[in-house]
Amino acid sequence: MPRLFLVRHAETEHNQRQVLQGAASAPGVISARGEAQARACGLALAALALPDPRVYASTYRRAQQTAGAIADALGVGLTVLDGLQEMEVGDWAGRPYSALDVSADRIRHEDGSFGFAGGESGGQVRARLRVALQGALARGGTPVVVSHGLALQAALCELLRVPLDDAWNDQRYAHANTAVTELEGEAGAWRVVRLADTQHLEGVL
């Protein structure tokens, strides 16, 4: 039975400031607290004794730093995989997180699809994540994929066959920094074993 772990990257300065980040933030690094979060996440995953773990990270620096700490804890290497990067928020970059506290109907492209003005549509994000995750799964082992908040919501909608609008409106797939989701494949579908788990962060400053 295939297993897949999805992890949001550790905290960054932009996360501390509660500000949306665009593609220009790709070189940004995690904070001191983020480093502690990443180490704690790595130790928690190592405690699971995963069979043949394979760690993947997006092309963004903050995801690679987080995945590096996890890979170190698991005693394996790290693979950077294109397609796992954050959803491009376009004109919304620089806005506070509070700006996202609106229904999916308020976040639309001109064609009516879900997406940020000047950025990607939900369909575009789901499509590239589908290819990236299929690539990771095809390599075998137990994939541990480190990605980003909005991208993970889109990935789970793709894997669990849920409309992105519905998931956005109730935020069912929202992930805190280094939150871990575990999925198991069964009969051509995926089921959630744990969702956005942050137990490993207890006691982390």
Please tell me about this protein's structure.
Helix 2 packs parallel to helix 3 and helix 4 packs across helix 5. The chain has a single domain, classed as 3-Layer(aba) Sandwich (Rossmann fold), CATH 3.40.50.1240. The longest helix has 17 residues. Helix 3 links the parallel strand 2 and strand 3. The termini are far apart. The chain is an alpha/beta fold and 205 residues long. It is built from 6 helices and 6 strands. A 6-stranded mixed beta sheet has the order 3-2-4-1-5-6, sandwiched between helices. One of its GO terms (cellular component) is cytoplasm. One of its GO terms (molecular function) is phosphatase activity. This is Phosphoglyceromutase 2, co-factor independent.
Largest sheet: 6 strands, mixed
Order of helices and strands: EHHEHEHEHHEE
What is the β-strand count? 6
The low-confidence parts are: none
Computed Rg: 16 Å
Mean pLDDT: 96
Q: CATH H level: which superfamily? A: Phosphoglycerate mutase-like
Name given to the CATH architecture: 3-Layer(aba) Sandwich
Class of secondary structure makeup = alpha/beta
In what range is the share of β-strand residues? Answer: 15-25%
**Count of individual helical segments:** 6
Strand order of the largest sheet: 3-2-4-1-5-6
From the N-terminal CA to the C-terminal CA, the straight-line distance is 36 Å
The structural domain count equals 1
Helix content: 25-40%
CATH topology: Rossmann fold
| Shape, principal axes of CA atoms | globular
What's the CATH C level?
Alpha Beta
